[in-house]
């Protein structure tokens, strides 16, 4: 029987994102703080539709706004790791990255009573050490890579990509990759921002046009795969705005009408591991 899974995932960055970027003036900080407004709207919407979602929460957010995160725990949502700060792992040393993961994991365990099993890299930018550290710390899945749009797969260790030679591919490991896509992320569609290098992300798209893309991707998966997973990535400070909440609710209704099964990413990782079988490792 066909099974088409929708993962509603949320990166609850709050203040950690502007702080990591070094934008410490009042306006960017207030944009991050709006995430508290947005996450409460999202929590209520998910409760109405009886959906358990996955929230990737930096340790900084957990320790700064424990009541907001505790409310998510009480509603049965998965709290997964998003680092302690929102710094890119590729910009950290191996020891700094390990410290981030350990501190973030401890914060999640304190507030949820559970050790996190899932990780998403800030800015979806892993380092050469990330996979080894996740395996060392007992993580079951990552959600930072983009090697497929509908099918989870095992992460690979030991790839080589020399400039003047063919790529070499390493060994699949005991870490399920639940892939993501910028096209299924609210930030590039909606958020106006300027990078430190001066590049502009225009954002501010019509929510109806974006919704058409998101629903069409699910419809394509349902048409072409008997089993598949689509992962949507939202940020409360982005999608918590009124008209974008309308988009999220319309998306949920379309997915439900299309027969989608909603699941947390931890649940998907378990199901995918069973389907994929043991890794070569």
TrEMBL record:
Report the Pfam families cross-referenced here.
Polysacc_deac_1
What function is annotated for this protein?
Is involved in generating a small heat-stable compound (Nod), an acylated oligomer of N-acetylglucosamine, that stimulates mitosis in various plant protoplasts.
Which PANTHER family does the record cross-reference, listed alphabetically?
A: POLYSACCHARIDE DEACETYLASE FAMILY PROTEIN (AFU_ORTHOLOGUE AFUA_6G05030) (PTHR47561:SF1)
Describe the location of the NodB homology domain by residue ranges: 26-263
GO terms (BP aspect): carbohydrate metabolic process
Q: Recorded GO terms, molecular function? A: hydrolase activity, acting on carbon-nitrogen (but not peptide) bonds
Protein name (Swiss-Prot/TrEMBL)? Chitooligosaccharide deacetylase
